[in-house]
């Protein structure tokens, strides 16, 4: 793969992260190739051991329209950090993230480019995620739509300090300046820390329901929910106040008394906490006060993503 992927059409590169799901990836790539104008696509394969590379080649050989899909296969599964590589390889000013089970509505990328042009302070445009099949909106989007941060004059939507990474547009320079996704967190819940870092670098983050991405529904198991709790605590160790860290640890202690399976969360925290504390750089008191509004709206650390 070349060091930078040249954009032949449009100003947004689509970065797709995948691991061992070739059939789902095939559906997503076919949907993305139908977009007009056709965006450049970079597939970041997180150490798949199946036919993922062959799927990408097949879509390139038999697909119609659009630039060649670039593929890079990693030797190890690096989690969310793999997306950083996709952004680094893009040459366009904007990047649209999607997972291998997510694809974008036809006009959303062009509309996003227009909004970025109109609002130079905006670094992130969070899209509305429509569940497929069924057509319902993801509950996280409902929370973003009613964000307690409100809508600031001159911005294209409500201000948020979180998003669903599989349906978001980012300004490439903002993403890289903020450092991208953090290697301590891997996934899930990696969006929260990136949102904080983007905000304190001076970028606005907005939810715009006119931008639409489709998400093929999949089951969210208990193991994933426990990883979300772990990553919220690790994020707090790196960016939040000592008081917030104590609150989250206290919630986990109570939950562990109710469900001993949460002992696995404690074990994982002990492994990753030293690296998190090494990177500790708390947000300013003003930003901490702002995020506290979201803490109240969210409740204990059991929900999926911040508003």
Explain this structure to me?
The protein is α/β, with parallel strands linked by helices. It folds into two domains: 12-216, Alpha-Beta Complex (Spore Coat Polysaccharide Biosynthesis Protein SpsA, Chain A); 222-298, no CATH class. It is 42% helix and 17% strand. The protein contains eleven helices and eight strands. Strands 3-2-1-4-7-6-8-5 form an eight-stranded mixed sheet, sandwiched between helices. Helix 8 packs parallel to helix 10. The radius of gyration is 19 Å and the shape is globular. The chain starts with 11 loop residues before the first strand and ends in a 9-residue tail after the last helix. Keywords: Glycosyltransferase, Transferase. Belongs to the glycosyltransferase 2 family. This is Glycosyltransferase. Residues 13-154 form the Glycosyltransferase 2-like domain.
